[in-house]
Write a structure and sequence with these properties.
Elements (H helix, E strand, L loop, with lengths): L7 E7 L2 E10 L2 E10 L5 E3 L12 E6 L6 E5 L11 E5 L5 E6 L12
Antiparallel strand pairs: 1-2, 2-3, 3-4, 5-6, 6-7, 7-8
Amino acid sequence: MTDLVENAFRMAVLGDKIYVICVEYDNWTPWPGYVLLNGESEEILDTAFLKVDDLPVNPCGITVDPVTGEIWIGSHASATSYEDRGYVYRFAANGNLLNKYAVGIGPSAFAFIR
């Protein structure tokens, strides 16, 4: 397991599931991966839990809604831009994309108010 997540960058936890963003850099360009782990057994459940072609290219934050299980990921606009507006991606618990929102620079933290 450690080989797969040695480049862990951000993570979110819901129950016994750990959603991990792993980022490997090639000449300062990020190559993110999205891994789902079982926190109790340390088993890798999925090496690509997001089910979409348009993946966040430069992620800077992740959280999971404790009520719905939806996965929220903040990303910079491009692999090399840290000054332009970013995006927030909202995924269903199964990893399917629900929405993509244009937001401000570097969306990295989320809160849920009920």
